[in-house]
Amino acid sequence: MSLLRFENVSKSYGDEEVLHDVSFELDAGDVEVIVGPSGSGKSTLLRCVNRLTEIDDGAIYLDGEDVHAMDENALRRRVGMVFQDFNLFAHRTARGNVTLGLTEVLGLSEREATERAEQYLQRVGVADQAEAYPAELSGGQKQRVGIARALAMDPDLILFDEPTSALDPELVGEVLGVMRDLADDGMTMLAVTHEMGFARSVASRLTFLEDGRIVERGPPERLFEQPDHDRTREFLGGLTDLHR
Amino acid sequence: MIDTASQANGIEAVFGPGGQIDSVLQAGDWAFVAANWEYLLAGTVVTILLTITSLSLGFLAGFPAGAIEVYGSGRLSDAVSTFGVLLRGTPIVVLVVLFHFGLPLPRLGSIPWLEINLTAFLSATLALGLRSGAYQSQVFRGAIQSIDDGQLEAARSVGMSTRQSIRHVVFPQALRRSLPGFQNEFTIVLKDTSIAFAIGLAELLTRAENLYLQPGKGTAVMEVILTITAIYFVLTFATNRSLDALHDRYSIPGGSE
């Protein structure tokens, strides 16, 4: 059974339809990269998974369960999210950012949470910054803490909403490196990113979304080399040139 | 009819012919102030106590009120904000007098050394406290609204309920951002305790008047007033410095606040 399934999902903001009849599924361990022009509905699609945005039509299933029938906090415990602007808790240290969910949501003791946080900060390579506050960290370090925060909750799936878009170019690599390691460890990921190198080498599937519709979806090599649609070729070609 | 003639006589009886305040500083009058140091000290204690009770009441009323204005349902939030508008739109002297004479407050005794009427202390606390709460609510409301939505979203996305997210993520940051506004409010309330003079509560200003209105002490007006002015200044200066230190202590490292 697929881990995540979108079934004819539609979503509108007022008169504007941002997602139109979107269907796809994802197996455990898959890395799905979504690309598309600005305003194509990529972020909305991610936010529907953990119900930061509610859909109008269709259904989304996590491990066979309709997410709308689930308690939203229980759902979010199982679906991590990494944000473009990091959204680290400004008043807590790197470690404190990771422990908050562990103590408040998972009910771990302060000590257990601290141990677990250290372990995940280590895993993303910022263990030496555990005591630092977000304002004292570089963008790349912030995003790695953001990943540790999501990862420490031991989610079934992590959503990445343009995780490298707010970073200075020289810091992009360290974040992609962590994401690559996660993929290698079998973490299921749904990522909106325009890092085509990452998409090509890590993604199991690439989805091209435009005007709220899936234009084309498939293994990245095929979309890059022999897309069915000219629009896909045009868009991916443009991105690849940009990032060459 | 108000008998202005006998009023003028009363002033002359105190201040001498012509009702002029004696503005010449005299050694004898300073000695008079010094001799009454304990009386003024008790007044200073009353002023400090009244500041603390009023600010505490202001915080207890103002913080929830600010939160309700941001998160509350329409009707509750409207009620709170209307109450705030009324309190902020009424002169504080009027509030103190209104609460003292208008509210059915219990008759309480007095405290010996401080010589304060507890009922007057209570009405002054209510007036200063609720008025401060009305202003503090705006400080907190602004601070809560200044927290980026992404903070709440991030908290919700790890599975925290809205209540947990507000408590653990929004409030701790909003409280830090409120400190400068709260500091301002501290100074205002401290100085405004002198308004309890209007209902005869034995705080600093009331005591100052009690001193120079004693028969034959009319020459000491300036000395007495300058003394309490200095006391007010030391109190505001010291609290401001302490709150600055508190602000530094709790500001978020690396942050702009």
TrEMBL record, chain A:
Gene3D superfamilies for the chain: P-loop containing nucleotide triphosphate hydrolases
GO CC entries: plasma membrane
Family: Belongs to the ABC transporter superfamily.
Keyword DNA damage: no
Membrane topology reported for the UniProt record: Peripheral membrane protein
GO molecular function: ABC-type amino acid transporter activity; ATP binding; ATP hydrolysis activity
Domain ABC transporter span(s) in chain numbering: 4-236
Entry keyword set: Amino-acid transport, ATP-binding, Cell membrane, Membrane, Nucleotide-binding, Transport
Compartment annotation: Cell membrane
Pfam family, one: ABC_tran
Organism whose genome encodes this protein: Halapricum hydrolyticum
Name under which the protein is recorded: Amino acid ABC transporter ATP-binding protein
TrEMBL record, chain B:
Domain ABC transmembrane type-1: residue ranges: 44-236
Record flagged with keyword ATP-binding: no
Family to which this protein belongs: Belongs to the binding-protein-dependent transport system permease family.
Subcellular compartments: Cell membrane
Biological processes annotated in GO: amino acid transport
PANTHER family: L-CYSTINE TRANSPORT SYSTEM PERMEASE PROTEIN TCYL (PTHR30614:SF0), MEMBRANE COMPONENT OF AMINO ACID ABC TRANSPORTER (PTHR30614)
Lineage: Archaea, Methanobacteriati, Methanobacteriota, Stenosarchaea group, Halobacteria
One CC-aspect GO term: ATP-binding cassette (ABC) transporter complex
Residues spanning the signal sequence: none
Protein name: Amino acid ABC transporter permease
Keyword annotations: Amino-acid transport, Cell membrane, Membrane, Transmembrane, Transmembrane helix, Transport
Membrane topology: Multi-pass membrane protein
